[in-house]
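JOB MANIFEST
job_type = single_chain_structure
chain_count = 1
residues = 64
[input]
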Amino acid sequence: MDISTLDKKLDTALSDFSSEMRSQFSDYSKEQATEADIAELSRQVFYLVDTFRKEIISFLKSNG
């Protein structure tokens, strides 16, 4: 894997995260976040960071 491929994979993960967040939460909502909202956000951030971790480890292994 090269840096360009890694960049594309990380960009895809960010785009997926952004899309998921937009589908879950309105940008202009005046409602306060609930515990369920925070739990969902936490879950999605975990998935994003885990994807980054896996892709970076894969990159390092293929270039090390």
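[summary]
Helices lie at 3-24, 35-62.
The radius of gyration is 15 Å.
exit_status = 0
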